Amino acid sequence: MVDLSESGAVSPGHSRHGQGNTGKKTSKKSRTRRGKRGRKRRNKKNNRNNKTPPPYFPPEAEEGNIEYKLKLVNPTQYRFEHLATQLKWRLQEGRGEAVYQIGVEDNGLLVGLTDADMKASLKTLKRMAEKVGADITLLREREVDYDLDRNARKIAEVLVRKVPDDQQFLDLRVAVLGNVDSGKSTLLGVLTQGELDNGRGRARLNLFRHLHEIQTGRTSSISFEILGFNSKGEVVNYSESRTAEEICESSSKMITFIDLAGHHKYLKTTIFGLTSYCPDFAMLVVSANTGIAGTTREHLGLAMALKVPIFIVVSKVDLCSRGTVERTVRQLERVLKQPGCNKVPMVVSNPDDAVTAAQQFTQSACITPIFTLSSVSGESLDLLKVFLNILPPLSNSKEQEELMQQLTEFQVDEIYSVPDVGTVVGGTLYSGVCREGERLVVGPTDEGRFLRLKVGSIQRNRSACRVLRAGQAATLALGNFDRSLLRKGMVMVSPKMNPTICCQFEAAIVLLFHAKTFRRGSQVTVHVGNVRQTATVECLHGKDELRTGERAVVRFCFIKHPEYLRLGAKLLFREGVTKGIGHVTRLLPPSQNHDQNQNHDQNLQEH
To answer: Where are the alpha helices (DSSP H) in 13-53?
Structure first.
């Protein structure tokens, strides 16, 4: 019941709908009072609704490398053993890395702990990590406050990383994209050498492979640079006169940067680097003073077409005003939000943002972190290092195990002749396990055959390695095998495999751009994994021609020699301004090759 006397109701002597001036005044007053009363009620209701609800994380997943723990205070010996086993499982799921959220219930409720309980929990976690041979790094602590009368409670986010044994470090590949002169090679030089640039490109000199690159300052070939992190999250690079072998030995996580060319003249090299080397992530470098220019949009489109998660670095912020940097960031945000991209830009401005960005980046395909930094002043460079240190692998241990159970398949991307060693091939192991002394077959040759060979020694990141596992990049020494018989795009596979080679194949494609129409007889350069060859369009199923944005199933025919392809492999083709993407749907081996596949053993030649 509402007490009318308190709520400002009219007195019994006055009618609610009174006559004359007095009645009108009373009616107006009563309406005003009723309005105030209604607002008070609504405000009370809003105050009740505006109480900050308890913050939540998503509920804990059974799989993956993230573990929630309310507290770890003085566990019994039995409980401690169980916790250590659980930690070992989470490390295995994260391929050597796990993240523990302390002060969080399994359903994701952020309860928080007092300082004493938090200190005891972190001490227990450190003991657990030591038991399984790992180290812990406190990423961040946050206060959880529900009401004013409760004491401040904290939750902690802790990274657990396993100390490497037998060279089993976590290896992530990052392709470096961006327009010419955006500062890609300089940024890599600063990260990997540990010294800031002098503003005239000194940091990039160690990355160049050719004299003309040093003279012009432009990258024209693909080069690889390594940046390590030890089990405590500290940077391990070439500073303090370390060698590549020493970096590998003392790192538990390795970032391999694939430095690609920015100039449009070398676009085919850049595409080959993206399709062949299977990067886990792409880093798009944009110069703050020029903004989105040249090949920036094209490189962004390529990474998105190949479904490579991308993050952006705005470089050279020391050269321009804060307003110019903000304008470049806004320009990037507009492009990323466009319907073709559908990305959610996330500007990283402090270490807390860097931790959040690294975790959300791999969980959600639409998140795109943006860093603003300088290779000369070193501004915000540490934020990028924090991000790279925490960045988890895309594939989990289960997917890795499944690939390792398959037969050996190694993609040949580079071929060298090394004095006193002989022929050496570089590339990525797509599936299986490769060991020193293993016998494989390599092909297809121009005639569509496979040749026998023996793997001598293996090197990963310039240091010796005895066993190569699926997903890892390495160089293999082949002894006195004739280099002239090898070419980029070949595969080295187990003799037990019956590889399907083809001169013709069908693919479901989307034509991204064509000046006129795409029709039968058109010639394009096709990129499928490490395969790069010109192909002719034999027919378009159900259509006579294709225009920009249209889809079709197309039959391609290689013009030089047969290739080894996999069903479902991503495909990218180009010719001038013509561009398209798709995936392989059907392989059509020629009749002579079909007969050869029936007698596979007869085709293997001893070399």
So the answer is: 20-49
Domains, in order of start, for the chain: 66-162 (3.30.110), 170-394 (3.40.50.300), 398-493 (2.40.30.10), 501-588 (2.40.30.10)
Whether the per-residue pLDDT at 593 is higher than 90: the answer is no
Residue 82 in contact with residue 69, Cβ under 8 Å?
Answer: no
Tell how far CA 137 is from the center of its chain. Answer: 22
pLDDT at 601: 42
Least confident of 45-54, 412-421, 531-540, 557-566: 45-54
- Kindly give the pairing relationship between strand 344-347 and strand 310-315: unpaired
Asked if residues 127 and 80 have their Cβ atoms less than 8 Å apart, the reply is yes
Residue type, 579: K
User: From residue 185, how far is each of 198, 261, 373, 376 by CA, in Å?
Assistant: 14, 9, 14, 13
CA 322, CA 288: separation in Å to the nearest integer?
A: 10
Burial 541-563, CB ≥16 within 10 A → b, else e:
eebeebebebebbbbbebeeebb
Distance CA 392, CA 71 (A): 24
Work out the number of other CB atoms within 10 angstroms of the CB of residue 538: 15
pLDDT score, position 563: 94
Overall average pLDDT of the 305-322 stretch = 92
Q: Is 20 exposed, middle or buried (0-12, 13-18, 19+ CB in 10 A)?
A: exposed
Chain centre distance of CA 481: 36
Task: Measure the CA–CA gap between 247 and 206, rounded to whole angstroms.
Answer: 17
| In contact, 231 and 193? CB cutoff 8 Å | no
Q: Out of 152-156, 398-402, 457-461, 529-533, pick the least confident.
A: 398-402
Structure confidence by residue, pLDDT tens digits, 187-237: 988 998 888 877 766 666 666 655 655 556 656 678 888 899 988 888 998
DSSP characters over 362-377 = HH-TTEEEEEE--TTT
Helix axis angle for 115-131 and 77-93, nearest 10°, is 70
Residue with tokens 């994994």: 529
> Are the CB atoms for 358 and 391 separated by under 8 Å?
yes
* Look-up of token digits 């004739």: 482
Q: Which residues contact 443 (CB under 8 A, 6 or more apart)?
A: 449, 450, 451, 490, 491, 499, 501, 564
Distance CA 306, CA 309 (A): 9
